[in-house]
Amino acid sequence: xxxxxxxxxxxxxxxxxxxxxxxxxxxxxxxxxxxxxxxxxxxxxxxxxxxxxxxxxxxxxxxxxxxxxxxxxxxxxxxxxxxxxxxxxxxxxxxxxxxxxxxxxxxxxxxxxxxxxxxxxxxxxxxxxxxxxxxxxxxxxxxxxxxxxxxxxxxxxxxxxxxxxxxxxxxxxxxxxxxxxxxxxxxxxxxxxxxxxxxxxxxxxxxxxxxxxxxxxxxxxxxxxxxxxxxxxxxxxxxxxxxxxxxxxxxxxxxxxxxxxxxxxxxxxxxxxxxx
Length: 276
Fold this sequence. Notes:
With about 280 residues, the protein is an all-alpha fold. The protein has 11 helices and no strands. The chain has a single domain (about 75-270), classed as Orthogonal Bundle (MetI-like fold).
């Protein structure tokens, strides 16, 4: 039974991630319509299997007559781009600071950890509102905000691991033969925290997708006419009682993608963590 459940989980993860990545990469060629073209005469068409729907718009159209399927496919590009780039920025900053804090300790550790504590004390939405309010709402600023809002998690986890690793025999031996601190960190410490970083980064991709959707829903993320899953949910608010498909399909895209990435993170944790 456990084997069947594990295989089923892997099948779900692979299917959802392949579909999402393929949609993002090949949307210009496989999407049935231009996601920004409006057709007011064909607005609010239901999905093809519902009375009044048509195969021309398999998932229906929105309040401006734009094809829902095409907008979901193009929206996956925004979600994956924001998720991966923001995670890359957060990991680069957080891992670097975590290595410095754990290896050198003393005032370096205290300074970095106090900065992390201060940032963690601010609610994320409040911090995002403040930064985007100053810089303006755009894809670049959204990625920057999400990346700089996640470095603390990497820094704290890496610091905790480095505090243990720097007392190991191979690190002590490297210091004894005169290896410089940067060489010790890069050659002997960093490779041994890589598995933690991979797991955290995978789980953070899911969180970044959720955060991007939330900020786009609030109007602080990707701006129209660029389609995004959060923006589609925002556009559907006026039609929730009469056109359920406007909310259901982008919502399901977010749920399935985030769930698949989280399951992938759990699997990687089981594989990469020697204690498990």
